[in-house]
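To whoever picks this up:

The parser on our side crashed when reading a file containing two proteins. I've narrowed it down to the boundary between the first structure block and the second sequence. Both blocks are reproduced below exactly, byte for byte. First block:
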Amino acid sequence: MVSDNNKEDFYSRLEDQLVLSQNWPGIYLFKFIVKSSSDHVETIKTYFKKNDPIFKIKNSSKNNFVSLSVNVVMESPKSVILMYQKIGLLEGVIAL
């Protein structure tokens, strides 16, 4: 189990890296791995609905998992982090 302090440190470092890596607002690529038997792909898609996203979905070779890529304009590094935190509440979703 990851402690809250470790999560805070991780997101702080991520925010610093995002600030340096591109201009904001800007296009950001999210990638997730989800179990095929889960309805989380549709849930995740609804989270991005208002941002005019481009989705790419690919099934694993044995169809046990789904890879979901989302290209979307995000307002700031903080908005990226908030989205990761929101999606992180979904059990079994792996963010890459």
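<<boundary where parser fails>>
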Amino acid sequence: MTLLALTRDDIADYVSAVFLVYLILIFARILLSWIPRIPYNPYLRAVVDFIHQVTDPYLNLFRRVLPPVGGRGFALDLSPILAVVLLLIVQAVVVGLIRG
């Protein structure tokens, strides 16, 4: 009987995939912010609420440091750019440390 053995590369690939999924959720959150009103659909609302609940705590850390630019109905939120850059740096460091 052969046991399933996970190598460091397998674990690093898994961790990298988790980071990638979170990055995709952040990009989905950015795209959702461009849509002013989404027609009500219970399934779509559940997906949108999930994306907001998962990404907002992380993005709010950067919104405190970098508030939206502009005003009068048009505020540009630059905090996701900083959040994505930092997440990519952390991903590279963590995955690099796991790979050894």
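After patching the parser it read the second block fine. The mean pLDDT is 89. The beta strands are 69-71, 74-76.
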